[in-house]
Backbone:
């Protein structure tokens, strides 16, 4: 969960710098032409405990502790829970400083109000809300219009305070912007999931095609080897060699039959029948061999 919170910081904010991994980060904002830096310090109990945000330089703003620069009264800090998004909390603070640029604490000067010295004047006690102050000048919460009892209730009643904050116009605007961004992120996430499923489906199809291709390749190799053997067996040169062997075999057989007849091992009738048949095969094979030789010679001359 700590890593997911740090990821939201990088998603919702630009210029995020890592000071100490998993512990401290720095985000820069522009406020009225000034560069404002917010240090985000994540304690050991984060995200169960709220982060510490410190602005530099220290700003004159109701959210900022003027002594330490800690951002203590931002809605995201006041209402922080383990389910809050760190990135959205920091983004809301940055947008507040950008849209309502506060002055630097050291630049603020205030003058004491001039009191009427008339002893009969009943206004000698001045309401603190009428004194010029940095908070009054930057009263983004319209606290100056509230009565003392309303301010006391804001301080003591958490539900009343949350309801009051939710009705502030710029808070509502920021909430709407955050809701829109979350909707956009959810849409992108849904699209990514759908694309992931599509990619997985296409990967499975590709795997099947690869298997089919491999099988076809093996079948092609086997068929090609068979073709090469058949091509060698039926090549004209090989046929010519086979005919020459067959001619020699028929010639040798006829010589054997003649020798057997001369030796008296075969009678005339048997000799004539076998010798004539053997010489016939010899003549046919010899004729074929000579004809094929002539054809091959003609092909060679024709440069085939």
Residues:
């Amino acid at each position: 969960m700590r890593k997911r919170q740090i990821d939201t910081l990088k998603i919702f904010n630009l210029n995020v710098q890592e000071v100490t991994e998993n512990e401290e980060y720095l985000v820069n904002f522009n406020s009225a032409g000034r560069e404002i830096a917010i240090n985000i310090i994540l304690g050991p109990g984060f995200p169960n405990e709220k982060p510490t945000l410190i602005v530099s330089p220290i700003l004159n703003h109701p959210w900022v502790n003027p002594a330490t620069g800690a951002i203590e009264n931002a809605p995201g800090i006041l209402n922080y829970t383990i389910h809050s998004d760190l990135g959205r909390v920091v983004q809301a603070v940055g947008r507040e400083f950008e849209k309502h640029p506060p002055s630097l604490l050291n630049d603020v000067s205030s003058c004491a109000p001039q009191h009427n010295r008339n002893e009969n004047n009943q206004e000698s006690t001045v309401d603190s809300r009428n004194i010029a102050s940095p908070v009054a000048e930057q009263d983004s919460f319209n606290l100056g219009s509230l009565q003392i009892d309303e301010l006391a209730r804001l301080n003591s009643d958490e539900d009343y305070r949350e309801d009051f904050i939710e009705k502030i116009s710029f808070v509502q605007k920021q909430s709407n912007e955050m809701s829109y961004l979350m909707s956009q992120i959810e849409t992108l996430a849904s699209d990514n999931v759908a694309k992931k499923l599509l990619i997985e489906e296409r990967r499975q199809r590709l795997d099947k095609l690869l298997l089919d291709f491999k099988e076809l390749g093996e079948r092609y190799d086997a068929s090609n080897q068979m073709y090469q053997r058949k091509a060698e067996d039926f090549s004209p040169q090989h046929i010519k060699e086979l005919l020459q062997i067959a001619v020699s075999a028929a010639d040798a057989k006829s010589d054997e039959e003649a020798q057997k007849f001369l030796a008296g091992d075969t009678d005339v009738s048997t000799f004539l029948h076998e010798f004539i048949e053997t010489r016939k095969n010899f003549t046919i094979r010899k004729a074929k061999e000579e004809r094929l030789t002539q054809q091959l010679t003609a092909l060679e001359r024709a440069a085939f």
User: Anything to note?
Assistant: Residues 108-138 have pLDDT under 50 and may be disordered.
